[in-house]
Amino acid sequence: MVLSPAVYLILALIVLLEHAHFLSPMALAWSHAGFRQVMLRQPAKYIGAPIAIIVATTAIGAATSLFTNLHVDIGMRVRVYNLSDYKQPFVMMVVLYWLWNAYHFAMQNFGVLSIYRKKSGSGSRRLDMAFCLFVQTAASVLVFAPHLGLRHDIVRDLYVPLALAGVLAMLVRETRPSPRMLFILTDAAGLVLVFWSGLWGFAVWAINHWLVAIGLASHVYANNAGRSATVFVAGLIAAGMVLFWLIFGSGVNAHTLFDPHFVVRASMIALSIRYGLAFTHFLYDRWLWRLSDPQVRATIGQDLFAAPYPGGKGQCSRVPRACKGASDTAALE
Question: Is 328 inside a domain boundary?
Answer without folding.
Answer: no
